[in-house]
Design brief:
It catalyses: 5-amino-6-(5-phospho-D-ribitylamino)uracil + NADP(+) = 5-amino-6-(5-phospho-D-ribosylamino)uracil + NADPH + H(+); 2,5-diamino-6-hydroxy-4-(5-phosphoribosylamino)-pyrimidine + H2O + H(+) = 5-amino-6-(5-phospho-D-ribosylamino)uracil + NH4(+). By secondary structure, this protein is an alpha/beta fold. The chain has 2 domains: about 130 residues, Cytidine Deaminase, domain 2 (3-Layer(aba) Sandwich); about 220 residues, Dihydrofolate Reductase, subunit A. The protein is about 30% helix and about 25% strand. It contains 13 helices and 18 strands. Strand 3, helix 3 and strand 4 form a beta-alpha-beta unit. Helix 3 packs parallel to helix 4 and helix 6 crosses helix 13. The longest helix has 12 residues.
Length: about 375
């Protein structure tokens, strides 16, 4: 199962709205088929592994990181395909809470005489499938907020200088993280300040959706960002007060402009994420800036927090990594549980998970 989980991660960021599943088929102690969900969500991992295994799948065991599908979509049900291939035992990491499956895949296999074992490495699988689960439970994608800051939590000097706070190893790691998410998201302030391209570089041809939240679409029309519209899909989420001429200009350039409502006079980040969820996105990688980071944290919409800390200090006159949260007490602060920490080059990466994530599993099981 550990091997199947590793394979499944290869699809992260490229298979939405489908989950990134891995499958390994073993016959007489030998791996005869391996597969993972392919770009665009099809073919499914089981189909890829069965095609590789061919006749060797007969009397074999299949290890799958999610309950095989039981519904007819663009392809026949994977549960039926496994049974038809002669697989006699299927081991799954977790059930699929999608209403179209929800135990039906396991039931179809058992009805066909296939032995089914559930819940192997379930905790790891739930973490891998967290974006898929979040979309099912809350109608929005999982949000990973990445911050790269000085030791004292600053992302720029008082004059605005910010390149580079972290080293080249950390920056390459960020591109690998972008690769495992469906979209890269920033606020309009980051675009105006940094003129970023927001693409995945140094990892082969791997375009990812880019999402910018800008209430009035007051984004630079010249520079690297404007010139990169054709490099990867670009969605601009704006408010109802965005001028029509700006919407027309970006649409003509090739971007997709999407109106979202305001809340307390600013873009409603919850509504923005729900729009992304309705579009099928499961995993979003937010890279700031401070205003957007604060909005997401205030709304309790950050699921994972990734912090790169560099060994330099910029002082209180530097730009903070997170904007005002308006907190009166420590009890009101959003809190996270440490998942992992390690050094990357000369910097430190610490990964945190939201403390109430267990509620997600409870909601899906009800």
């Amino acid at each position: 199962m550990a091997h199947a989980l590793t394979l499944g991660r290869r699809g992260q960021g490229a298979v939405w709205p489908n989950p990134a599943v891995g499958c390994v088929i073993v016959a007489q102690g030998r791996v005869v088929g391996r597969g993972w969900t392919q770009p665009g969500g099809r073919p499914h991992a089981e189909r890829v592994a069965l095609d590789q295994a061919g006749p060797a799948a007969s009397w074999a065991t299949a290890y799958v990181t999610l309950e095989p599908c039981a519904h007819h979509g663009h392809t026949p049900p994977c549960a039926d395909a496994l049974a038809a291939a002669g697989v006699t035992r299927v081991v799954t990491a977790m059930g699929d809470p999608d209403a179209r499956v929800a135990g039906r895949g396991h039931a179809r296999l058992r009805q066909a005489g296939v032995e089914v074992v559930e819940g192997v490495c379930e905790a790891v699988a739930r973490r891998d499938h967290a974006g898929f689960l979040r979309r099912l439970a809350e109608g929005r994608p999982l949000v990973t907020l990445k911050l790269a800051a000085s030791f004292d939590g600053r992302i720029a000097t008082a004059s605005g200088a910010s390149r580079w706070i972290t080293g080249p190893d950390a920056r390459r790691a960020v591109h690998a993280m972008r690769l495992t998410h469906d979209a890269i998201m920033v606020g309009g302030g980051t675009v105006r300040a940094d003129d970023p391209v927001l693409t995945v570089r140094g990892m082969g041809q791997a375009p990812r959706l880019r999402v910018v939240l800008s209430q009035r679409l007051d984004l630079p029309t010249e520079g690297r960002f404007a010139a990169s519209v054709a490099d990867a899909p670009l969605w601009l989420l704006h408010g109802p007060d965005a001028p029509n001429d700006r919407k027309a200009r970006w649409t003509e350039a090739g971007a997709r402009c999407v109106e979202v409502p305001l809340a307390d006079g600013i873009l409603d980040v919850k509504a923005a994420l729900e729009h992304l969820g309705q579009a099928g996105l499961t995993r979003v990688f937010c890279e700031g800036g401070g205003v957007l980071a604060a909005s997401l944290l205030r709304a309790r919409l950050v699921d994972r927090l990734l912090g790169f800390t560099a060994g330099l200090a910029l002082g209180s006159d530097g730009t903070p990594a997170i904007g005002p949260l308006g907190l009166d007490t420590l009890a009101g602060a959003p809190r996270f549980a440490l998942h992992a920490a390690r050094s990357i080059g000369g910097d430190v990466l610490h990964e945190w998970d939201r403390l109430d994530d267990g509620n997600l599993t409870d909601r899906l099981r009800r």
